[in-house]
TrEMBL record:
<protein>
    <recommendedName>
        <fullName>Cupin</fullName>
    </recommendedName>
</protein>
<dbReference type="InterPro" id="IPR011051">
    <property type="entry name" value="RmlC_Cupin_sf"/>
</dbReference>
<dbReference type="InterPro" id="IPR006311">
    <property type="entry name" value="TAT_signal"/>
</dbReference>
<dbReference type="InterPro" id="IPR014710">
    <property type="entry name" value="RmlC-like_jellyroll"/>
</dbReference>
Length: 178
C-alpha cells in the first residue's frame, strides 16, 4: 500500500471513527441509564477539584493585582456550613442529592473521594436524597490539606479516610435560579 493510499484511507476512516466515538458512548449511556432502578444521576456540571497549588497560585496572582477571582459563582443560593473531623472512617454507600451542592475544603489531614459514575441499585431515602452501593465508572481523588472540591448536585460521591481529616463542608440548599 502506498503512502497516498494510506493517507486516503485515513482521511476516509478518521471521520467515521470520530463519529462512532461520539455516538456510541451516548447510546450506551442511555441504555445504562434506562436500566438503572433509580433516576440516572445526570449532571450538566462535572465535579471540580481545586488543588492547593492552584489555590496558592490564584492567591499569589491576587496579591500582585488586588481584585476578585470567582472560583464558584452561584447566585441567591442558601447554604449551610459545617466543620467535620474524622479518623479512620469510610462511607458504605455513594450518596447524591437532587437539591444540594457541596464544597469541601480540607483544613488538615487527607481523605479520598470517589466521584461521579453511574449509580447501581440506587434507592430513594428521603425527598431528593439517594444512596447506592456502587457507582460504575467513578473517579477517585485524593485530597490533602488546602485542597478544595466542588461536588455539584446529582453527583454520586463517597468519602474514605484512612488516617484523620478536618474539613469545612459548604452545602447549598434549594433550587438553582438562573
Amino acid at each position: 500500500m502506498s503512502t497516498v493510499d494510506s493517507r486516503r484511507d485515513f482521511l476516509w476512516i478518521a471521520p467515521l471513527a470520530a463519529a462512532i466515538s461520539v455516538v456510541l458512548p451516548k447510546s450506551l449511556h442511555a441504555a445504562i441509564g434506562a436500566a438503572a432502578s433509580a433516576p440516572p444521576a445526570t449532571n450538566p456540571v462535572p465535579f471540580q477539584v481545586f488543588k492547593a497549588e492552584t489555590l496558592a497560585a490564584s492567591e499569589k496572582t491576587l496579591e500582585a493585582a488586588p481584585g476578585t477571582k470567582s472560583l464558584i459563582d452561584v447566585k441567591d443560593l442558601p447554604v449551610t456550613v459545617v466543620m467535620t473531623t474524622e479518623t479512620a472512617k469510610a462511607a458504605k454507600e455513594f450518596e447524591w442529592h437532587e437539591g444540594r451542592d457541596h464544597v469541601v475544603q480540607i483544613l488538615d489531614g487527607s481523605t479520598m473521594y470517589e466521584l461521579g459514575g453511574t449509580p447501581k441499585n440506587g434507592r430513594n431515602t428521603k425527598p431528593q436524597e439517594w444512596l447506592a452501593p456502587e457507582s460504575e465508572g467513578c473517579s477517585k481523588v485524593m485530597l490533602g490539606k488546602g485542597d478544595m472540591l466542588l461536588i455539584p448536585r446529582s453527583t454520586p460521591h463517597k468519602r474514605t479516610t484512612t488516617g484523620s481529616v478536618a474539613i469545612i463542608l459548604i452545602s447549598t440548599v434549594g433550587t438553582v435560579t438562573s
